[in-house]
Amino acid sequence: MNAFLIAATVLLVLLVLPGIVVVRGRPIDSIVALELCGTTITLVLLCLAEGFHRSAYFNVPLVSALCVWVGGLVFVRFVGRFR
Amino acid sequence: MKTTDLLVDIFLVLGVACQLVCCLGVLVFGNVFDRLHFAGAGTTLGPLLIGAAVLVRQTTSAAGITTIVIMVLILVLGPALLIATARAARRIEFGRIGATDQERGPG
């Protein structure tokens, strides 16, 4: 197990912290936590790609970064309507 | 231990520590705007350091260039998303995006 796989494991465990906010917080708080979760997941995928020494895996965090951004914008767009 | 390995370890530890602080901040602080500060830091510092760790290994290979693209995407698009979130939060909390009368102050 190399340093990148250890870092990916620790980052995965860290997802519990904003995950609590996602489950228990108000919708707007949950979206903020979800955005941080998305960034962290992208970093996890990047660390896994490097940890496994597979260059093809680097496309996954690239797609993840784009999907997190688009998904976040959609959530913000709809939650912004509620007060 | 080679210098590159040491650099990778340092960047990874710092990057994961940054993400830890950001995740803790989002959990501990109760205000949505305080949480946004930590979420914003989570899209800049941590990704930069972890991306640097990958780049130490990959340099200018295809994977390295993909890593640079990912870093640029996170660093450019992340704050844009946070601004949109802050505007929505402002609309929810105060009913409008602009400054309130109390925030403007006298005069």
Please describe what this structure looks like.
The complex is a heterodimer of chains A (83) and B (107). Chain A is mainly α. Chain A has one domain. Chain A contains 4 helices and no strands. In chain A, helix 1 packs antiparallel against helix 3, helix 2 (16-24) packs antiparallel against helix 3 and helix 3 (27-51) packs antiparallel against helix 4. The mean pLDDT of chain B is 89. Chain B contains 5 helices and no strands. In chain B, 82% of the residues lie in helices and 0% in strands. The radius of gyration of chain B is 18 Å and the shape is elongated. The longest helix of chain B is centred in the C-terminal third of the chain and has 33 residues, at 62-94. Chain B starts with a helix and ends with a helix. Chain B has one domain (3-95). Classes of the chains: A mainly alpha (83), B mainly alpha (107). At the A-B interface, helix 1, helix 2, helix 3 and helix 4 of A face helix 1, helix 2, helix 3 and helix 4 of B.
Question: Which features does this protein show?
Answer:
heterodimer, A: 83 residues, mainly alpha, flat, B: 107 residues
